[in-house]
Specification:
354 residues, mainly alpha, 14 helices, ABC transporter permease
Amino acid sequence: MRKNLKFEVVRTSMAILIALAVALIIIFLTSNEPGVALKEFVVGPIDSLRHFGNVIELAIPLMFTGLAVSIMFKAQQFNLGAEGGFFIGGVAAMVVAIKVSLPVVAHPLVAILFGGILGAIVVSIPAFMKVRWNATELVSSLMLNYIALFIGAYLLNYHFRDPNSGAIASYKIPKTAKLMVILDGTRIHAGLIIVAVMVVLCYYFLYRTKWGYEIRITGENKRFAEYSGINTAKVIILSQVFGGFIAGMGGSIEVLGLYRRFTWQTLPGYGWDGIIVAILARNNPLYVPIGAIFLAYLRIGADLMSRGSDVQSEVVAIIQGVIIVFIVAESFLSKYKHKLVYKEAKKLSVKGVK
């Protein structure tokens, strides 16, 4: 187990280093001021409290979708509905914030809970379709993302749009529904505390409960799980319901934490980014914050670089692509893994002889 963990850490680290090296080469080849570009890219996100705050603000939704995707992928369910679940969670937060009057503390909690429930419903539909009709969750979840988008667009345009806003935007979100800022000088909000709690709960759920064990066993070997008496159909649905709930919570928290009005007219993209975070974290909830902060750091650094130098922010897309290619490539560093396995087997054989 430790050898496998060591290998995955080494492989992920190597993929990141190679991707960063490719980025450096591109910067030096395309920029007339590579020193300035590198400074903005590497140091920019931490050169002020405001920039550091931007990193954490961006990492919060990435953590939610990263957790959601990790749980679904842990069961080998390639449901891409975290994007739709995140979006519909934001829509739900808008509805509760504007239409329901509640006290200060209860208002955001009810909105987040409602967002989580709607997110669970959206993301679980592909799970039910797979269990009932063996429909591929990959395709059905992609289609459902756009159904969620058009439902949200309809509600925004025909029921919640403020005609006096001067843009396609909802009525203002009441202050009673807003999440409080927890660090002055930034927009870091209470969602950071909530997502930290969710990281711990998700890890406990996956590695310390019967349901989590069933999810992991089903993901590793579905036939063995069925032979062991595990109801894999229930596990498939459970993993995606739980993942959808977390994604919906993330969308609600994003809207209540950073927006004065709901303005999403397209899918925000955090669900797709959550896949990258889950891949970096190897589907382990404890590593999701690391992957999310790393990706957020790259994004903020690239944005600052594009504004302060002649290098465009698309460099981050190249880094992401290289990282994913190397991490998902089974043969990458496979010889190193074989050496680790051989050494471990040799040690065990020597102990057995003694």
